[in-house]
């Protein structure tokens, strides 16, 4: 798992139509998390990559889908989100 350093303001608005259209054609899974680490959105590639439909993943905690070796980094980023109110995009290539 690679954590990008670019920061952006948090937003509780759902992704726009252009964003959703772009993720449908993307070969990697695109995931949007809430501040608690729950999956709010996952692209259709999840079915091919992990064998689950997006509807089966949405609402679960991201730690369920991250390799154990990557969990310390994931928890560090989630803690940082909680502490400073900003999010760093997680880039996960499967």
Describe this structure in words.
This protein is an alpha+beta fold and 94 residues long. It has a single domain, classed as 2-Layer Sandwich (Beta-Lactamase), CATH 3.30.450. The strands form three sheets. Strands 1-6 form a two-stranded antiparallel ribbon. A two-stranded antiparallel ribbon has the order 2-5. A hairpin with a 5-residue loop joins strand 3 and strand 4.
What fraction of the residues are assigned to beta strands by DSSP?
Answer: 15-25%
| DSSP strand count | 6
Widest sheet: strand ordering? 1-6
Helical amount: 25-40%
CATH superfamily: PAS domain
Q: Regarding quaternary structure, how should these chains be classified?
A: single chain
CATH class type: Alpha Beta
Shape: globular
Number of helices: 4
| CATH architecture name | 2-Layer Sandwich
Order of helices and strands: EEHEEHHHEE
